[in-house]
Write a structure and sequence with these properties.
Strand order of the largest sheet: 1-2-3-4-5-6-7-8
Radius of gyration: 17 Å
CATH class: Alpha Beta
Order of helices and strands: EHHEHEHEHEHEHHEHEHH
Number of helices: 11
Helix content: 40-55%
Strand content: 15-25%
Shape: globular
Number of domains: 1
CATH topology: TIM Barrel
Structural class: alpha/beta
Bound molecules: pyridoxine-5'-phosphate
Distance between the termini: 22 Å
Length: 249
């Protein structure tokens, strides 16, 4: 059964829209945990557009589930991770001009430098996950880097037309199978919604789904605790053949 990591970057986005103190993502992390979040994920971006250093420091002290820090593979972020010591670091590609993370990390293209970084983080007791496309070359490079986890990029699946979704789901399923046969543990995320999450949650061996935007969007209507509770129910108990069933409300 997959667990649920809740990404709270968008809470910080609302705060940064006015550069004020509310809403505070640290308080909302607690509400997400009350709703059943198995982990809290934040992305500390180089340009600090949403999550701030102070948020990560306070979350380290207050999160009672697991703190997953998404970050770029840079010297600045490495120093922050080694100081704050989240439970997990997820390494992601980062482009200054992008609206959100676009595509997976090119692990094969920077294997040597990533292997060093993975080793230093894991040596400090921090779990490391690499955010990659479900591509055999990248997955083999992940294994070579020494990382224990991969997070499969589900953005292409999420954006696919209804007709193409089964093909993209098959890619994720095969990627998950290959990763596990290489000894890697498998998470997934990006672009997942209440409507499309179940087939991904049902992939054999899927450990954790990291989901942000759709949960924060629903939280505006029903509150964060309830929005997390509703997502957790889908992640824990996905329908067997949901791609061909009727959509849930
Ligand atoms: N996983 C990774 C690596 C991400 O970069 C993001 C977005 O920050 C997510 C998961 C969550 O994506 P979404 O907000 O679309 O649910």
């Amino acid at each position: 059964m997959a667990s649920l990591g809740v990404n709270i970057d968008h809470i910080a986005n609302v705060r940064q829209a006015r550069r004020t103190v509310e809403p505070d993502p640290v308080s909302y992390a607690l509400l997400a945990e009350l709703g059943g979040a198995d982990g809290i994920t934040v992305h500390l971006r180089e340009d600090r557009r949403h999550i701030q250093d102070r948020d990560v420091e306070l979350l380290r002290q207050t999160v009672r589930s697991r703190l997953n820090l998404e970050m770029a593979a840079t010297a600045e972020m490495e120093a922050i991770a080694l100081r704050i010591r989240p439970d997990m670091v997820t390494l992601v590609p980062e482009k200054r001009e992008e609206v959100t993370t676009e595509g997976g990390l090119d692990v094969a293209g920077q294997l040597q430098s990533l292997t060093g970084l993975v080793g230093r983080l894991q040596g400090a007791g921090i779990g490391v996950s690499l955010f990659v496309d479900a591509d055999p070359t990248q997955l083999r490079a992940c294994q070579a880097s020494g990382a224990r986890w991969v997070e499969l990029h589900t953005g292409t699946y999420a954006e696919a037309s209804w007709a193409d979704q089964p093909l993209e789901l098959a890619r994720l399923t095969e990627g998950s199978f290959l990763a596990r046969s290489l000894g890697l543990r498998v998470n997934a995320g990006h672009g997942l919604t209440y409507q499309n999450v179940e087939p991904v949650a049902a992939i054999e061996g899927m450990e954790e789904l990291n989901i942000g935007h759709t949960i924060v969007a629903r939280a505006l209507a029903v509150g964060l605790e309830q929005a997390v509770r509703q997502m957790k129910a889908l992640v824990q108990n996905p329908r067997h053949d949901p791609l061909f069933g009727s959509p849930r409300p």
